[in-house]
């Protein structure tokens, strides 16, 4: 693979887990009621390289809802379907500097959703998913993300229903986008597909393989299947670098130097282009909504494996 030898990577993944597991700072998300019931001690760390080797330590196979990490992969699927220019115009790529579920960010910009990693832009992106009906769009989301993971991903019905009962804000954002002519299909159907996409069950191992597919120019290094083009991976990783870690995206890039995406259930995927990806899971979050142990473990591995994109050696 493109990383140091197998033994060394294996040792470093164990070291990352060992060093970070004692940290118990942060809070579990509770704005989706059922997420508050998770065990805060869960912690998994996985590295997948672009040659298909996988190193997994801790709770690497515990499943959780993918949440906002889905935005990165749905964006890639939509870029594959529509191309660089159209998605750039309709969804945008600039950071809002505001919370991921901000309504103000939409209002301040003539209803333009700004970027695909905030909820407004993610809803606008999901609205573009290929499919003649919402049911077909959802099936295309599920099978598309499953191809990134290299296995069949399933809906977490409990998380889906919990969020569907409490997502008034996403419905409001979708209606606001509709009022500006930015969503052309039924906005509540778009929210439903988006809520399902957020409730797909993944593990830290899945996140690492999904990230390694972006690192590998769109070919899943475990299954060998091409999921998206190399150009789509480049576009997706550029967006993740500037907007993937909520309001902390600048600090993250400064400290860790890798495109990454986090979600409120505690997952993080960080991608080293041409080399591989790191998938972590730990539900305790910092105030921006990023996993505390996951950030620390990724920072350690980025440094130890020499992955920072901006480092000359
Ligand atoms: N499903 C969540 C929402 O739409 C995802 C948020 C997240 O992970 N940041 O609010």
Automatic annotation (TrEMBL):
<feature type="binding site">
    <location>
        <position position="264"/>
    </location>
    <ligand>
        <name>substrate</name>
    </ligand>
</feature>
<keyword id="KW-0378">Hydrolase</keyword>
<protein>
    <recommendedName>
        <fullName>Glutaminase</fullName>
        <ecNumber>3.5.1.2</ecNumber>
    </recommendedName>
</protein>
<feature type="binding site">
    <location>
        <position position="194"/>
    </location>
    <ligand>
        <name>substrate</name>
    </ligand>
</feature>
<keyword id="KW-0007">Acetylation</keyword>
<dbReference type="GO" id="GO:0004359">
    <property type="term" value="F:glutaminase activity"/>
</dbReference>
<dbReference type="Pfam" id="PF04960">
    <property type="entry name" value="Glutaminase"/>
</dbReference>
<dbReference type="InterPro" id="IPR012338">
    <property type="entry name" value="Beta-lactam/transpept-like"/>
</dbReference>
<feature type="binding site">
    <location>
        <position position="68"/>
    </location>
    <ligand>
        <name>substrate</name>
    </ligand>
</feature>
<comment type="subunit">
    <text>Homotetramer.</text>
</comment>
<comment type="similarity">
    <text>Belongs to the glutaminase family.</text>
</comment>
<feature type="binding site">
    <location>
        <position position="163"/>
    </location>
    <ligand>
        <name>substrate</name>
    </ligand>
</feature>
<dbReference type="InterPro" id="IPR015868">
    <property type="entry name" value="Glutaminase"/>
</dbReference>
<feature type="binding site">
    <location>
        <position position="170"/>
    </location>
    <ligand>
        <name>substrate</name>
    </ligand>
</feature>
<feature type="binding site">
    <location>
        <position position="119"/>
    </location>
    <ligand>
        <name>substrate</name>
    </ligand>
</feature>
<feature type="binding site">
    <location>
        <position position="246"/>
    </location>
    <ligand>
        <name>substrate</name>
    </ligand>
</feature>
């Amino acid at each position: 693979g493109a990383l140091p030898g197998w033994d060394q990577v294996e040792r470093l993944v164990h070291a990352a887990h060992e060093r970070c597991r004692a940290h118990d700072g942060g809070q579990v998300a509770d704005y989706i009621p059922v997420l508050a019931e998770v065990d805060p001690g869960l912690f998994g760390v996985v590295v997948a390289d672009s040659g298909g080797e996988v190193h997994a330590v801790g709770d690497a196979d515990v499943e959780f809802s993918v949440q906002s990490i889905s935005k990165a992969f749905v964006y890639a699927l939509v870029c594959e379907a529509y191309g660089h220019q159209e998605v750039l115009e309709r969804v945008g790529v600039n950071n809002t500097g505001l919370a991921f579920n901000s309504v103000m960010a939409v209002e301040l910009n003539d209803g333009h959703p700004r970027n695909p990693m905030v909820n407004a832009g993610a809803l606008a992106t999901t609205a573009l998913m290929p499919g003649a009906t919402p049911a077909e769009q959802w099936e295309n989301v599920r099978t598309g993300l499953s191809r990134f993971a290299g296995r069949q991903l399933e809906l977490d019905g409990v998380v889906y229903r919990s969020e569907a009962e409490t997502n008034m804000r996403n419905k409001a954002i979708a209606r606001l986008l509709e009022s500006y002519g930015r969503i052309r299909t039924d906005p509540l159907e778009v929210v439903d597909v988006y809520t399902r996409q957020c409730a797909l069950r993944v593990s830290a191992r899945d996140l690492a393989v999904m990230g390694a597919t972006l690192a590998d120019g769109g070919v899943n290094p475990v299954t060998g299947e091409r999921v998206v083009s190399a150009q789509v991976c480049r576009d997706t990783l550029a967006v993740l670098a500037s907007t993937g870690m909520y309001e902390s995206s600048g600090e993250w890039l400064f400290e860790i130097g890798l495109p990454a995406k986090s979600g409120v259930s505690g997952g993080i995927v960080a991608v080293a282009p041409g080399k591989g990806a790191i998938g972590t899971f730990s539900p305790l979050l910092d105030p921006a909504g990023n996993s505390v142990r996951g950030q620390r473990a990724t920072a350690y591995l980025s440094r130890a494996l020499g992955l920072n994109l901006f480092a000359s050696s």
